[in-house]
């Protein structure tokens, strides 16, 4: 038989036909075995070529029966795919083409080995071999498309392995097969997308434009299928893959992954919540991209806003209530819709369970399934971005929006993280961007006012936390000093339902930051305090700050801070109501506030006078000015008097200027203004105040007698039930302390305050 097959093609075909006619399967196998062992696998190239031709001829001779011998026919041919001679590889490709063409659907059980061999030939350096492999590839694709017996489950492991090839031709081959399999209605490749999605995104970064385009098309087809059949999509298994590629350095990969993430968030909803920390790690940095990556930035913004909307009040359930399918929303948490409107290196890709749990409807099922909010991971990522000095402005704003949103939706669980977040939130007040500071203040204000922040039992006022904070501000702890201020119920955070135990802590630490960072106080101090007055209760802010400053040991800072607060009080439109409240002192609350402010305002003599002007305590203002003769007059002091004169000419003090027309009932106002005039040197402010006083009618009436005690001004002071003598004595004590400190600084060789040279 071997001698007969010296020229294998025609004799082997004739012999096989005879054996088929005789139904002699053993002889057929014997012929194929000889062609394989003696020829196709021979050491001589011509013998191998003859063997390949003979095997193809056998397949043709077998016809429909070739399927019974495919294993014996295919294996030697595939072995020749690795031959060093390109002509032999071409003949092997041609032989396999003929074998497959005859067998058609019968080759499908051997698809994996055929695919494996073809994937190697697709990257063959010889153009003829590559051309032959393409013909074979098209034939095999036609067979798979026509058949309904393709074993997708068995093929996926091979596809998952080969999809990570770095060869361009192999990648092109892989993508072409994925596109074919996607197009076959009976093959549901979507079920196995998690197995190959990572490899697809890697191919998307190929240097070849053609391969990138093919991969884009394949991913686009998958995304269309996902939108059509979201209920059958394994979103959770692909979430972390998208998180990784959303951080890719390649723009196309990043944009495509971000678009997928946007669709996943929209379609899967709260199923994506366990992966929130990883998603935020990928999305947040993109929000600070410039116009060169505008598309990525826009999609990332949609992802960020969509993910934020998935956090609901039910995520704030207590641990005991985890089994409850729903939780009533607290009224305070609904206010987010009024304040947080339309959109505006800590990789966490795991879905670790946390304490938060809620049962909600998902896109993939009509049943209620538990979904976990990984709050700890989210806070860790947000905190990391705030600490990173390289974080862009828009990213910082988004981080602060997230924190605000979480405090609104899950306040009880967020307050577990407040102590760790508080320092970085305070440091963020030094940010260069006003918008960042505004968002930061919103978060701090929410922390300071949320009912969830109210500690049980003794508040921060009585606890060691506040005492340590006060000590950082050089505040004495003696209770006698607290009570001596005469402020009822205001030693700690103001007793109002909108404030919690964090409010006073916030005020203490804010003043501490102003004390240690004077540039912040100079450039942003007024801006920060004004915004806080809009976000929180202005009276509480001034009351608490005045109370803290009363016990401040750094007297120079106390004087500067009082001056800043006074300027805000007198000039800011945000404090219009507070000024009106102080103007008349009609209520016990307003008188209490005046006394509290007055005691701290005593750190700065001129601001104390201006407070008396604001509250229409003109007699006391005159008494204070009389004391100025005992003070050490400096250039800074006269500058403040100059500014007060300018302020008197502003609309804020219109009522005061009009009261100059009523000389009889306001003699101490006129005396106080003349007192200021006498303090000033011959300057523009002197001329301004002098001209104003010249407009006062009937100057003869300035002479007062004891009967003037019945004037309106005195009646008002008496009706206010305020111990002005005690306040005046307090003023003297505070100013004596300032004098003592200045002398101590001078003794240590520190630069003294600027003095007037007379």
From TrEMBL:
<dbReference type="GO" id="GO:0042802">
    <property type="term" value="F:identical protein binding"/>
</dbReference>
<keyword id="KW-0472">Membrane</keyword>
<keyword id="KW-0492">Microsome</keyword>
<keyword id="KW-0967">Endosome</keyword>
<dbReference type="Pfam" id="PF12755">
    <property type="entry name" value="Vac14_Fab1_bd"/>
</dbReference>
<dbReference type="InterPro" id="IPR011989">
    <property type="entry name" value="ARM-like"/>
</dbReference>
<keyword id="KW-0677">Repeat</keyword>
<feature type="region of interest" description="Disordered">
    <location>
        <begin position="452"/>
        <end position="471"/>
    </location>
</feature>
<dbReference type="InterPro" id="IPR026825">
    <property type="entry name" value="Vac14"/>
</dbReference>
<dbReference type="GO" id="GO:0005829">
    <property type="term" value="C:cytosol"/>
</dbReference>
<comment type="subunit">
    <text>Forms pentamers. Component of the PI(3,5)P2 regulatory complex/PAS complex, at least composed of PIKFYVE, FIG4 and VAC14. VAC14 nucleates the assembly of the complex and serves as a scaffold by pentamerizing into a star-shaped structure, which can bind a single copy each of PIKFYVE and FIG4 and coordinates their activities. Interacts with NOS1.</text>
</comment>
<dbReference type="InterPro" id="IPR016024">
    <property type="entry name" value="ARM-type_fold"/>
</dbReference>
<dbReference type="Pfam" id="PF11916">
    <property type="entry name" value="Vac14_Fig4_bd"/>
</dbReference>
<dbReference type="GO" id="GO:0010008">
    <property type="term" value="C:endosome membrane"/>
</dbReference>
<feature type="region of interest" description="Disordered">
    <location>
        <begin position="314"/>
        <end position="352"/>
    </location>
</feature>
<protein>
    <recommendedName>
        <fullName>Protein VAC14 homolog</fullName>
    </recommendedName>
</protein>
<dbReference type="GO" id="GO:0070772">
    <property type="term" value="C:PAS complex"/>
</dbReference>
<dbReference type="GO" id="GO:0006661">
    <property type="term" value="P:phosphatidylinositol biosynthetic process"/>
</dbReference>
<comment type="function">
    <text>Scaffold protein component of the PI(3,5)P2 regulatory complex which regulates both the synthesis and turnover of phosphatidylinositol 3,5-bisphosphate (PtdIns(3,5)P2). Pentamerizes into a star-shaped structure and nucleates the assembly of the complex. The pentamer binds a single copy each of PIKFYVE and FIG4 and coordinates both PIKfyve kinase activity and FIG4 phosphatase activity, being required to maintain normal levels of phosphatidylinositol 3-phosphate (PtdIns(3)P) and phosphatidylinositol 5-phosphate (PtdIns(5)P).</text>
</comment>
<feature type="domain" description="Vacuolar protein 14 C-terminal Fig4-binding">
    <location>
        <begin position="518"/>
        <end position="696"/>
    </location>
</feature>
<comment type="similarity">
    <text>Belongs to the VAC14 family.</text>
</comment>
<keyword id="KW-0256">Endoplasmic reticulum</keyword>
<dbReference type="InterPro" id="IPR021841">
    <property type="entry name" value="VAC14_Fig4p-bd"/>
</dbReference>
